[in-house]
Specification:
Largest sheet: 6 strands, antiparallel
Number of strands: 12
Number of domains: 1
Number of helices: 4
Order of helices and strands: HEEEHEEEEHHEEEEE
Helix content: 10-25%
Length: 212
């Protein structure tokens, strides 16, 4: 993995995140089972940097999203960098990206956005007809219950917020009380869980979904 140049992730954090991915426990509706994961990191596309705040991160994500005819939804800041949702013209979730605060580089988030996304990921168009169809056999409410079961077993004290649909999977904030603590995804057909261990501590977010 010497080709990776992710300056905003210290080596120790990157190694820990990769190890966590491989050691992840995936939960299905029928119980716990091992889920194969990957430490592959999406290539990034450099844009103007650095990214100092949520507004900068949103602009960087917008420049990246324009290449695919998409817009930007929620933007979040963690102590390891910035995260953004990309959405289609109807406001449906299309994929998730990471933004490097030092260079302003933007790329697909590794994990579910790369491996599970049937619209923009490595397996786009497979199994669910491509496009932006979630292809779910698991409902948003079921995804939330699966997430809560995983959190009770693995991160006591946290619970899941509402499930946001992406092609092939759902992503949910994890909450401690009423404050965001982290993020995880649930596969829309198998119910497998993938915790986003690479973000670090949540700092702040920008969300226009409730704007009048």
């Amino acid at each position: 993995m010497s080709w990776l140049r992710l300056r905003w992730l210290p080596l120790a954090v990157l190694v820990a995140a990769t190890a966590t991915l491989f050691a992840s426990i995936a939960w299905t509706a029928g119980g716990a089972t091992a889920w194969p994961t990957s430490g592959i990191v999406a290539p990034v596309a450099p844009v103007d940097g650095p990214v100092r705040d949520l507004d900068d991160a949103e602009r960087a994500a917008e420049r990246f999203a324009e290449q695919w005819g998409l817009g930007v939804g929620e933007v979040m800041r963690f102590d390891n960098g910035f995260y953004a949702e990309l959405v289609d013209s109807a406001g449906n979730g299309a994929t998730e990206v990471l933004i490097d605060p030092q260079s302003g580089a933007v790329g697909l988030e590794w994990g579910p956005a790369m491996m599970w996304n049937t619209g923009q990921g490595m397996h786009r168009g497979r199994g669910h007809g491509g496009g932006y169809s979630v292809g779910a056999t698991i409902s948003p409410d079921q995804a939330r219950r699966i997430a809560d079961a995983w959190l009770r077993a693995n991160r006591p004290g946290e619970h899941a917020d509402q499930a946001e649909a992406f092609p092939g999977y759902y992503t949910l904030h994890t909450l401690r009380g009423d404050r965001v603590a982290g993020m995880l995804s649930v596969h829309a057909t198998s119910g497998a869980v993938w915790y986003h261990s690479w973000h670090g501590r949540f700092i702040d977010m920008l969300d226009h979904s409730d704007a009048g």
